[in-house]
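**Protein fold record**
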Amino acid sequence: MPRYTFGPFTLDPDIRALLRDGEPIPMAGKAFETLLVLVQNRGRLVDKDELLTRVWAGAVVEEANLTQAIFTVRKTLGDSPKNHCYIVTVPGRGYQFVAPVAEVTNVTAPAGGNPTEARTRWRLSRVLRFGMAGALLAVLAVIAFRWFRPAVPSQSLEPVPLTSGIGFAGSPSFSPDGKQSVYSWRTPEDPTGSIHVKQIGANTELRVTSSPGGDLFPAWSPDARFIAFYREAPGHSGYYVVSALGGSVRQILPVADATGIDWFPDSRHVAVEVPAAELPRSLPETAGSKLHRIASLDIETGERRYLTGPDPAKVLTDANPAVSPDGTMVAFVRSRASDGERDLQVRVRGIPGADIFLVGLDGSPARRLTNFGAGMEGIAWTPDGHELVFAMYQDGRSRLWRTAANGGSAHPITSSMEYVCCPTVARQGHRLAYVVVTGRTSLWRTDISGSQPPGAGAAMPVISSVRREAEPFYSSDGQKIAFASNRTGPGEIWAADAEGRGAVQLTHLGGPTNGTPRWSPDGSEIAFDSRIHGNPEILVVTEEGHNIRRITNNPAEDVVPSWSGEGRWIYFASNRNGDFQIYKVPALNGESPSSPPVQITKGGGFNGVESPDGKYLYFAKGRGKRGLWRLRLGASGDGTEEPVLESLQNWGWWALGLNGVLFLEQAGESSTAKVHLKFLDLSSKRITDLRTLEYPVDSGAATLTFTPHGGHVIYEQGEDRRSDIVLIENFR
């Protein structure tokens, strides 16, 4: 049979192998067969029934087997359903292989011979047979490739470590000659972070700044004299400059809550992100929204020129400015201000719901470059100004991408096997650097029933892997745990018993991010949110993993579901009418034109949970908003909101029980401050500190649950977290 080549891959049916740049890649049998059928039928739609018949001939299997096989194939190829390079999903019908494929005829190996050796000898014989003609063809092929090659990097370029110290290295930037790198580094000895400079290829480094606050997002000036950065320090937050050799620092703009800075070619102006509170009085503002805009700042006079204008109606915010090499354009990330907290350390999943925009210095409106609506974390220009490199978290996968500055398709640079962010490209030397974040998130359990007031017993991991185990939720009888996990690739919904044993994957959606699972009162179903249809919706799956059904159907974000006490309703948060509010919809049939969702809250709502007695709905206000509130349900409810715990720091850091609220609280503003597990007695209003957690906790997820009678608590912790900077040479 012929071999098939596409992109960097070779598919060889004779030896049942998939190779990437000549190196074999492990692939399970049914996944290999699925890929082979699709490649052999490239260019046409292969329906699901045909695939099931050809791959599982004579076996009785379910469509979930095919879904899992397609997921494995995509994971191996580094593909995704939404941003596909190889496989397109035709909803409800099947799949189509769309990448160009070339066939190469195999030569049969002699009996008892090694097939790989036989092909090597065959290739050598062809070179000797055709002599100069073959060499000429090879030269012409190289010329043609260099002339016509698409703007996609060679997949054979391997990253090498630039940093390898303990802690969190982030936000790299090259010196103008590309021979040095500056970056922020947070260590146990320097927990807030400082700016460091390192010579490429050397083991020594220079610490440039020292501050009780955190120094972040460094950028090297084009004339090589200065490093600009953002400092996060109470009373002293703002943009600063320092000599590239170190020394005293100078504040150039006092601002709070910013995420990046970049230089213009004249080495006198920088592009910065300015919060709404810093905007001129002549510009409109929206109370309570975190509007940020991009401005050009003169580092000598402090004069500001605003390049993007606020849009209070759409509550848009702009961040991460990146100046083009010729200084005529600024690329930036635009997202809704309500989308997520703005964590100034290593932000897992980036700025959500975001896209890249471009704005010129001529006063023309910003234009949209991408249309992903995904998590963005960092932009960099190529030296010729023709392309942009960016980091994006989407459908449970994190990658670096590149796209033309004048629009067009985006192409992946890295695989989706690790979380990456903060790319930078050297102006000289053909180098690309970026951050790789590693670590795992596990679920831990502790007993809080041993004393009155409750105290916490020993803590131990209950569900753990090398990846992310998160968002736990006990069933109403306390015998089962639902949770989200990406141990098999993108985030899926799983279930296990109360001891964490017998974990079963319930969803096989193969691409979208799925999370916040919540058991129905009778334990027969789990509601969860998913991006399977492009934007977040509420879905329900049975406890066996069958019959996934859709509950909401709206272009807005519908997230974080929960069930009413009798199981008749599903509550969820939605921004379909502007700010996030809590709605409810019939659990059996879901949303429909004849049965639209009923809005419950009026002043903002997120993560709504009905009390065990059905009298109250407890809820947070939204992402990035503090406090826990409740309102009375039923005929006696007058819509009045009552504060329960105004100090609650994050929307998912609480769980409701019969007698009180379990919650997490971080002691201090520093990202290295310890998180405490606490209990609020609703009758006495007394708060008890139960234990100090050993590891950090995700601030953007529902992170804890406890049994209805308050005996056991399960919470998530991030272990072995670190980030390093890696370098790719010969990046073109």
